[in-house]
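Protocol step 4 of 6: structure prediction from sequence.
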Amino acid sequence: MALARAKPLATEVLRRLRHPTRRGVALSLAALPVLVLLYVLVLIPFTPSIGDLRKAKIEKPATVLSADGKELAVFKRANRDWVKLADISPSVVDALISTEDHRFFTHHGIDFRRTASAALHTFSGDRQGGSTITQQLARNLFPEEVGRAPTLTRKIKEAITALKIESVYTKKEILETYLNTVPFLYNAFGIEMAARTYFDKSADKLDVLESATLIGMLKGTSYYNPVLNPERSVERRNTVLGQMLKHDKLKAARYEVLKKRPLKVEFERQTELLGPAPHFTQQLRRWLIDWADRNGYNIFADGLVVRTTIDFRLQKMANEAVLRQGDRLQGVASQEWGPKAWAAKKSLVQAFVRESGDYKAARESGLSEEQALKQVQADPAFLSKLRQDKTRLQTGFVALDPRNGHVMAWVGSRGFSQDQFDHVQQARRQPGSTFKPFVYGAAFEQGALPTDTFMDAAVEIPLGGGAVWRPTDVGAPSGVAMSLRDGLTYSKNTITAQVMQSVGPAKVAKLAEAMGVRQSKLEQVPSLALGTSPVTLKEMVSGYSTIANSGKYIEPILVTRIEDRNGRVLEQFEASAPDQAMSTAAANTLLDVMRGVIDRGTGSAIRSRYGIQADVAGKTGTTQDNTDGWFILMHPHLVAGAWVGFNDNRVTLSDYWGQGARSALPIVGDFFQQSLRARVVDPDARFDAPRLVRAPAPAPVAEPEAEAEAQTELAPEEAPPMPPDAQPEYRQDNYPSRPPPPAYQNYPGNQGNQGYRGQQGNQGYPAYPPTEPAPQLREFPPIPPPPPPPPALDRGYYGR
């Protein structure tokens, strides 16, 4: 029935459209502007407000400062360096106004004459733009609100925003803002970055030709790119010169000379300043964006000042240590993975090739696996780049103040420009023997003593289902009793495995989590004792900070306070209340045992090579096949750790250089050597933990021949010589000599450990001084069998 009523109405409407009356035409023409006006009014709320425009006028990015007030980073929207209008060449302004908007100083945001002319040309098939400089600025400042689609809605929004801008900004402010926000390709925003990118000079030094070239790009930055399209760029440049002549900004004679000149470009891509701690600031940026969103701030516009815990001096020393020692070790890696060695590992290289984008593209083009592999491997440039990428050594370094959780230094890789992946907080790698302190700490928590002993013998631990785990060391077992102190000092896997069996994986995992390993999942299996569960470097250093802080865990913090642009404190951040993760007595016992690692164990190079005589303790770590090298050193005021390895864990170093004592330890040793010498870290600070074993006497400076002999003694026969370009920068005659062994009676039978890798100089384990009770065999209650581990763990695993 409704359809029957609508049909006559539709018929009448169609009749009137076919035969319009004068009255109907007049009403339609009158209604059109009314409808347009209504549409404009509807769009006004969807354009930036006056408040947004005022805020954009005083936009200032957040600045990140170190604890000592040095700039670490500025969080800009884009890679730009803002310059005032007075610091921009006048020829740039003349070229801009002559070409883009010659009535700029007479209109109020919209040039109606130009808009009408552009509309007529567009309707006739010759599309032209009619936007004024102010309208273009509206798009640059508010790309999301205004948009860039070629629609009527966008043009109306653009016009509304332009009128608002003119009501808030002066003409000079519009010009300054426009020239500082316009993009010029190659991550260059604003006239200053464009001048540096294309002409290697600042914006105030641009001449007429250079100004015309850059302004000419605004019509189409890619199409008129002077680097890739120089002929089009010259043609467009001369068009701009012609506009300058037309509007009396250039004399005719001068124009005739300039238009004949060739294009001269001095291209240099401008990279954003990374600052001294780029991985740290990237982590901070993500946190700050979340904080700003919750509190109604914009990190790109509100001028926030973020004061961090980073010590600028320590950060500089950390960067230098990573660079110096990383480059030295890269020389070793480049030698070990040279073209001949690379070619010899045919199956591994083919696996790398099959994972590459070039190989996948070849397969997608229709080639068979064999054809694609042959084609890609025939490209020497590809293979060379693949080898360089895969064998580029990486490292992570972080230092914390154990007393308050402050992050003092953070280096996420050997170079942020080459590797943005953060090996401090993002990378999870097996920690190897650096995990062992958690095992011994759990034993001390249950009442074990450093003098308690286990037999240094072959160990077989049933895993259930018929599987057996047989942890081994490099040398054969001595067959004699060894104390817990020596088990950790010399990183004995057989002793550590027995301690784990006595304590239980669950208790070790629980303690490690309480001490700081809180984000990574720890598999509660016996091999956890040797560091088989991947963790982050930040977690491990945090856990060692708990040891240094008498068993009290403090969550690491990055920021102390945030201020507004006027210095008003918006929020203050304090360290969390300490959490007693382990008893003070157990923590002090563990720390004292770990002093032995530095005094006479696997970390003795801290004293013998770097001459560090401060009260320090630590642990080295190396994982299966030398995939990961670790070292963490504790000082009462600073705990620092380093990881060294390759991003692809199928690439490893040799048995000699791959050890944590020779890969990661030099980074930490270099860092502490600098910081203690400069007294940024107090060399006289002492732990509260009593020292139960007498420390070795300070070592005298070695003669060059003596040190060279000592180094040769430590190196196994198969170790390659250090390449000339990988030599450390330290003068050999500045190395302190290895400290003499304590004058204690050696354990009988320890000669069987002479082949212990890297420790040939410690042929006998020293006995304990009279201040400690004699070692006693200690019996631990039996524990239920642990859950079965992954199949890969059913083999000997060693870590150092």
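Step 5 (inspection) to follow. The two ends are 91 Å apart (CA to CA).
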